[in-house]
Amino acid sequence: LATPGQQMVSLTTGCTPADYIGGARKRLKLACHPSCGCMLHLIRETGETVHVPRVGDFVIGRNPKTSNLALDSPEVPNMVSRRHAVIVSAEDAVMIVDCESVNGTYVNGRRVGRETLRQGDALVIGNPLQSPGSLRLTVDMPISMS
After folding, report:
1. CA torsion through residues 134, 140, 17, 58, sign
2. Which helix (H) or strand (E) covers residue 17, if one does?
3. What is the DSSP string of 124-146?
4. How does strand 69-70 pair with strand 58-61?
5. Is the four-CA dihedral 63, 69, 70, 76 of positive or negative sign?
6. Which among 29, 56, 130, 138 could disulfide-bond with 43, CB atoms 3.0 to 4.6 Å apart, if both were Cys?
């Protein structure tokens, strides 16, 4: 916890909340899925829904002990870094932040370091030319009632 005058820093990403969205200070309420309260769902190729909660950082990586979503593929071993990417709720947006992974994080075919996620975005963990379907996810966000 930060004391007065100090800035909070995420223990998992090492970033401050302002780092995620360029320093904006106002706080807007994000919509959440009415059935479960998640800020977003990741849909796997199998149709399985991965729930991403509103609170805390959501880590995607190869290490099941330190990741909320552990991914790996026998077809392309080590495509996913132990700590590959983090999904964070920042101000009025949900973002994915690549953790300097070797094979990258891709949103809609573009390699990203940090990107705001939107409804229907195609997320690929690792090189999209080599990543199997098990490393491909679709973003499902609640409809904003603004």
Report:
1. negative
2. helix 17-21
3. EES-TTT--GGGEEEEE-PPP--
4. parallel
5. negative
6. 138
- The pLDDT value given to residue 29: 58
Q: Average pLDDT per run of 10 along the chain, which is 146 residues long?
A: 43 41 46 83 96 92 97 95 93 91 98 97 97 97 67
> What does the alpha-carbon distance between residue 41 and residue 6 come to, in Å, rounded to a whole number?
33
Cβ contacts of 116 within 8 Å, gap of 6 or more: 93, 94, 95
User: In the structure encoding, which two tokens stand for residue 138, read together?
Assistant: 């679709």
* Cα dist from 108 to 1, 6, 10, 136, whole Å: 36, 37, 27, 11
Taking the CB of residue 87, how many other CB atoms lie within 10 A of it?
23
Supply 24's token pair: 């904006």
- State how far the Cα of 7 lies from the Cα of 108, in Å rounded to an integer: 33
Residue 36's Cβ-count burial label (10 Å; 0-12, 13-18, 19+) is: exposed
